[in-house]
Amino acid sequence: MPKENLKEIPFIEVLRCKVHLVQIPEVIDKISYWIEKEREKYHFVVVTGMHGVMEGHKDKKFQEILNSADLFVPDGISLIWTAHLRGFPLKKRVSGADLMLEFFKISNERGYKNFFYGDTKETLNLLVKKISMNFPDLKIVGFYSPPFRPLTQKEDEEIIEKINQEKPDILWVALGLPQQERWIFEHRDKLEVPVVIGVGAAFKFLSGKVKRAPTWMGNHGLEWLWRFFQEPRKLWRRVFIDTPMFIFLVLLELIRSKGSLK
């Protein structure tokens, strides 16, 4: 059972985004606590790395959405390195796919109900088939692939009604950043779900549609390189423009913070 009194999780600010210093066990504990002890409340979890922080740096309204989250989970080696520079020795990043797998183990035992929203019908069918084989007792109460266009008001109301009728304990959203975070934030007063999490490309990874980097690459912070070679058109700007800019801005922020302490 989840702990009765979970202590507040420490965080650092990276380019004015509040990033929590968590690893998978703390995230699982927090989610379980919310489901079992605060299920009448809505809880929003962001899982992103440098990409999300940079999107927030460019768009202050999106930064406000990120900072409204109950938990900002560091998915990206750049945020781990940033934490190390600030004196916080986080061991590894927490990817959306890894978080889902670990939560499925707990969910399989405790009967938590899962709903998947986003990606394509093909990906969702593969995802459900695969995880049902690996976690035979996992409760999947629904999944839905929205059209790749803006929803009409009627369509939007229908999908929210569908989700709420199934009464999931956790809603996994994979629309890609920043769309998924905006969607979650915009529907925060309509969703009757204890925990809603944006997980980006995790559906593709867990379904097998996109092959994940070898473990050794992930452990050495090189998964971004693996993904770049798989999806260069999608990731070139992130790799060649956003990453150098992020490094520059974080170092500048660190220098300024040290100067202010003198």
Task: Please give the alpha-carbon distance between the first and last residues.
Answer: 47 Å
- Kindly state the mean pLDDT as a whole number? 89
What's the structural domain tally? 1
Per CATH, the class reads Alpha Beta
List low-confidence stretches: none
Q: Tell me what the CATH architecture is.
A: 3-Layer(aba) Sandwich
Beta-strand fraction estimate: 5-15%
CATH topology: Rossmann fold
Silhouette:
globular
Strand order of the largest sheet: 4-3-8-7-5-6
Radius of gyration: 18 Å
For the sheet with most strands, the description reads: 6 strands, parallel
Give helix and strand order, one letter per element, not per position.
EEHEHHEHHEHEHEHEHHHH
Number of helices: 12
Class computed from helices, strands and strand pairing: alpha/beta
Helix content range of the residues, please? 40-55%
Strand elements, count: 8
Task: Reconstruct the topology from this structure.
Blueprint (H helix, E strand, L loop, with lengths): L10 E4 L2 E4 L3 H14 L5 E6 L1 H9 L1 H8 L3 E4 L2 H9 L10 H15 L2 E6 L2 H14 L4 E6 L8 H14 L3 E5 L4 H8 L8 E4 L3 H6 L7 H5 L3 H8 L1 H29 L2
Parallel strand pairs: 3-4, 3-8, 5-6, 5-7, 7-8
Antiparallel strand pairs: 1-2
